[in-house]
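Appendix B, record 7
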Amino acid sequence: MKLSKSALSLILLSLTAENTWATQPAAVPGCQLKPIFMEDFNDLSIDAHHIGPARWTAHTPWSGDFGDAQFIDPGPQGPFSVKDGILSITAVKHADGKWTSGLIAAADASGAGAGTQYGYFEVRMKMPPGPGTWPAFWLAALKPVDSSDGNVEIDAIEYYGKFTAAYQSAIHVWYKDQSKTRGDSKVITVPDGSLVAGFHTFGIDISPQNIVFFMDGVQTWSYPTPAELDSRMYPLVNLALGSGWPIDKTPNPSVLLVDYVHVYERGAGPPEGCAPGLPKQ
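Structure tokens (predicted):
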């Protein structure tokens, strides 16, 4: 039997479709990611200390500033501005020689905020150039501040401007009894100058089995999930200065650019775990 071109095309199309569907992985029950906090910085929603209606606060809930620049409140002379869907966090050296900068946290001291115990967190940002800068994207336990013992901290990226070809990821478990405090870290190498040359994404996937780190969608590190990770986690972004490195040559001003912060919730998943990260497009 001789087939017309149109009939042959239909058969080939049908076979291609069947093969495509056959190669698509089936959705694993309990592994679906649900967007719960999609901050695209179309407006500025930062309060000094309280969540609601603001989506962010301008200090760590435990009021623990760090580094060589004071984190200050939002306002006309504050460190935060939004333009074209990009948040700028600006560190400035003032006439008295002191620096100010900014931090945003999706939580407050009461334990109110946005986060998830298991799921995926991602930021897209561009680092400021110059030595002395210390920007970071990290997660902390979403609990009232008086429930601070044994809390987990996860650092997706700490970038030290003195070292232009690497950044650090880390996990900490903090105890009031310092002998119980523990953690680990990993240095991630990148092409020299690439983090200040353009935007990049940094992600953290949390499951009962592992905490998996990503840069630009590529896995960079995996660490067993600590037993102390028993609550939701929330995101923080900051531009600190110093961390033990001199800031006498830090550019004034220095600006961290943040495109978005996205949080996706997921259940505990099956015993064998879920594929980490966002599904491949």
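Remarks on this record: DSSP finds two helices and 18 strands in the chain. The domain at 33-265 is CATH 2.60.120.200 (Jelly Rolls).
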